[in-house]
Amino acid sequence: MEFIKKHFAILIISLAVMGTGLILGKSYLSKGKPDPKIKVIGKGEETFDSDLIVWNASFSRNDFDLKLAYATLNQDLNMLKLYLKSKGVSDKDIIIEAANIEKQYSNEVDADGKIISTTFNGYSITQNVKVQSKNVNLIERVSREVSELINAGIELDSKAPEYYYTKMADLKLKMIEKATTDARKRAEKIAENGGGSLGNLHQADMGVFQITAENSSEDYEWGGSFNTSARRKTAHITIRLEYDVN
């Protein structure tokens, strides 16, 4: 007992050194041997039909008299609206945008290419019309038949229809679920083949949402692609998961 009292401080120091040595020894033995992890990528794809069509068209009138140009343009616009209604297009689906007015000029140049005079050639007024509808079949057909308006004297500049999908939020959730399930199955198989079992999910990252035309060779874009030219599309997404392995 007397011995312990006299050498108490030394014993405490010795025990501390021994404890530190054990900790450092375990740390050294486990150095370079991190807990095993499995990293996998799951893919989700879904093909769908667009349920919203947007068709843009425009026409112009030119005249030295601005009021006359406007009056002629309004006649064309009324004729176009009557034409669309006769085809079954609803009033609520026709969007008349603001007309654009431009002054037209022509320049006379000399042999050196310098402008020597400018002549005013009148006003050009352009009217843009948009048709936005969920009746995809109807608007698709009408956009192909508008050449009939040429006979009425309206030179319509018709753009190719654009196609959209209004239930994109629900589709994304479905895609994420598919990709996550696919990734987990891959991870389970890898763990099983390695003689272990899948542990807790360590990390999850979602890739960029891509929408391309069905059966196309379109390239994916870094920020995500969104095809609007094809009626039938395929959505793609990837999920990266990292699991612990037991």
Describe this structure in words.
The longest helix is centred in the last third of the chain and has 26 residues, at 168-193. The protein has two domains: 35-49 and 167-245, Translation Initiation Factor IF3, CATH 3.30.110.170; 53-163, Alpha-Beta Plaits (2-Layer Sandwich), CATH 3.30.70. It is elongated and about 85 Å long. The protein is built from five helices and ten strands. The strands form two sheets. Strands 2, 3, 4, 5, 6 and 7 form a six-stranded antiparallel sheet that branches. β4 and β5 (115-133) form a beta hairpin. The chain is of the alpha+beta class and 246 residues long.
Q: What CATH architecture of the largest domain would you give?
A: 2-Layer Sandwich
CATH topology (fold) name of the largest domain:
Alpha-Beta Plaits
| Class per helix and strand makeup | alpha+beta
Biggest sheet details: 6 strands, antiparallel
Rg (C-alpha, Å): 36 Å
Relative strand content = 35-45%
Q: Kindly report how far apart the N and C termini lie.
A: 50 Å
Total number of β-strand segments?
10
The level 1 CATH classification of the largest domain is Alpha Beta
Short description:
The chain is α+β, with helices and mostly antiparallel strands. The chain has helices at residues 2-6, 8-30, 66-86, 136-145, 168-193, and strands at residues 37-49, 52-63, 94-96, 100-109, 115-133, 157-158, 162-164, 198-206, 210-213, 232-245. It folds into 2 domains: 35-49 and 167-245, Translation Initiation Factor IF3 (2-Layer Sandwich), CATH 3.30.110.170; 53-163, Protein of unknown function (DUF541), domain 2 (Alpha-Beta Plaits).
